[in-house]
Amino acid sequence: MHRHDFSYFMHEGVSNLFSHGFMSFAAIGITVACLLIMGTFSLVAYNAEMLLQTLESEYEILAFVDENYNDAQTKAVGEAIRKLNNVKSVEFITREDAMASFEERNLDDYMRRNIIPSMFRDRYAVYVNDLKLVRQTARDVESVEGIGDGNVRVDEDIAGGFILVRNVASAVSLALIAILLVVSVFIISNTIRLTTFDRRDEIAIMKMVGATNWFIRWPFVYEGFLLGLLSSLIAFGLQWLVYASMVKSIAAADTLQFLRAVPFSSIWKPVALSFGAAGILIGVGGSLTAIRKFLQV
Amino acid sequence: MRDKQGFFREEKEGGARVIRLKDVEKEYENGTYALRGITLTIEDGEFVFLVGPSGSGKSTIIKLLTGEILPSSGRVVVNGFSLTKISDRQIPLLRRSIGVIFQDFRLIEKKTVYENLSFAMRAVGATPRTIKNRIPYVLKLVGLEEKADQYPHELSGGEQQRVAIARALVNNPYTIIADEPTGNLDPARSLEIMRLLGRINELGTTVVVVTHERDLVNRFHKRVVLLEQGLITGDGVGYDAK
Ligand SMILES: Nc1ncnc2c1ncn2[C@@H]1O[C@H](COP(=O)(O)OP(=O)(O)O)[C@@H](O)[C@H]1O
Ligand SMILES: [Mg+2]
Predict the structure, then answer these.
(1) Pairing of strands B223-228, B73-78
(2) What's the burial of B36, exposed, middle or buried (CB within 10 Å: 0-12/13-18/19+)?
(3) Which tens digits make up the pLDDT trace of B217-242?
(4) Architecture of domain A66-150
(5) Domain segments of chain B as ranges
(6) N or C: chain B end with fewer CB closer than 10 Å?
(7) Where in chain A is the domain with CATH 3.30.70.3040?
(8) What is the CATH number of domain B16-97+175-242?
(9) Ligand 1 pocket, mutate which of B26, B32, B211, B233 (most atoms under 8 A from CB)
(10) CB distance from A21 to chain B under 8 Å?
């Protein structure tokens, strides 16, 4: 493509954009709304996923070792647990360590004075790969020799809620992305169809004198590209505001203290990239659908 | 050589600029038999009138030559392109070898005379320099150098048709094809347009003119092909010669 052709395409594309100012404005508005909805749901899903990962890494099953076991036997128990399915890592905690950490957490003097190391037992903290399987894993740990029934402690199902949120958010964002992509491609396509209709005489003459199909298409592709790019820029800015205020209200809500949202500043690059890519995809996809039929003959 | 400036002209060997139709039939989708076996050769540099009553198939032949429609059977070869075997990618190249003129001018109303021509040149990838050099020459040829900055609606019908002729010429085609170019013009303007086409032919471009104006045709001593009901029923010099 020659430089003079390129500047011609840009000029034509921009003037197409303004020839239907209101329609372009509406198309950008709807595309922005679509991108924003897609972005918000994706970010919720992403945050739920991040929370789950944190929970997973912090979540521990405690397995208390038989008190009559000697060091070597205790070590073997640890090895057996490590080999179980879904076990990421195992950490040995002696009764002294357990007591020390208990003392740290319970500053009550009376309690402190009265505890004795024998109240504590050697134990393994077991970390899992997949929180969903934690009950099964706990049962597996129980059946390891040297642990036994009743000697495993599992924190109840705090994970369940998040798994649900994450799954729902991912499913909803996937479905929304699919639907809203189609909607915005359709809107942009209709906008560009209007300009192709305006320019049908010019297109007919270009064909008559022997312009290639791509020469005829480029201004419209460029118009779609601009619509998509503008939409994604605006949507990105708005997404930033929306996300920041969501993070703020979560931090301000007493009941949601345990939620730590990922700050926008640490994810703006991939978000910007995704918005840009989605915007351009929508814009160019829209223009290609608009001119596909128009170019036969 | 045929055109002093000679832009865009990739010289092809001898016979490549010939127009050749062999046993061409055309049946439209609705069952209308527009052409019933046409065999016709137009040599490089010829001037041919294609005449015949309305509905005899003249425009159908033009559409076959420009690749707008395909024949139902038979062979069509234009300027080295075989229309029955041509690929979509080659259609633009075929069209660059032909300049087409219509009864209704088909100018872009929002563009000046100059812009109408530069638009047609840019569409086939001409550089700004080529455009700047070429347009004044073509406008002079059709006698409109004074009107470059006017809009089509500011011109008379005859002038508008001369702009259309300039546009057909501007990319320096081998062949000019005009489908009833004087249909909207009074006899004096019509004669002017025909003379202009004759002059363009003298400069070396093959010219095919569709018309049904017998008087006009008879003023020129040129080859006339007569078409009736989809068949060639006459081919000779002068309308009444056949
Ligand atoms: N697109 C079309 N579909 C169906 N029939 C057509 C079409 N174009 C032309 N015809 C028919 O083909 C015949 C020849 O038409 P045409 O080539 O336009 O004649 P002319 O230009 O000599 O008046 C006429 O009967 C016309 O009605
Ligand atoms: Mg006709």
Answers:
(1) unpaired
(2) middle
(3) 999 999 999 999 999 999 998 766 54
(4) 2-Layer Sandwich (3.30)
(5) 16-97+175-242, 101-172
(6) N
(7) 66-150
(8) 3.40.50.300
(9) B32
(10) no
